[in-house]
Design brief:
- By secondary structure, the chain is an all-beta fold.
- It has one domain.
- It has no helices and five strands.
- Strands 1-3-5 form a three-stranded parallel β-sheet, with no helix packed on it.
């Protein structure tokens, strides 16, 4: 949408750079939300993540492509 719209740019299919060493706590909804349809061209690793005391889920996502979780902890979420 908008003047900068380019149909050849599709973020949910872009390569993930790095997602490592993150903490989410006491947030209103999700500690980590990966949008549905995330289909990176190569394996995307979400590593060393901790979500706790979040208002909904520690991690939320669905219909994901080449996605893997390493050393992820979720605790005391709604």
């Amino acid at each position: 949408m908008g003047p900068s719209f380019n149909p050849s740019i599709v973020p949910i299919r872009a390569k993930l750079g790095e997602f490592r060493n993150n903490v989410a706590h006491s947030v209103g909804n999700y500690g980590l939300r990966i949008f549905h349809g995330h289909e990176p061209p190569t394996m995307a690793y979400y590593e060393d993540h901790l979500s706790y005391k979040c208002g909904k889920n520690g991690i939320m996502g669905g219909l994901l492509g080449k996605v893997a979780f390493r050393n992820v902890t979720v605790a005391s979420n709604a």
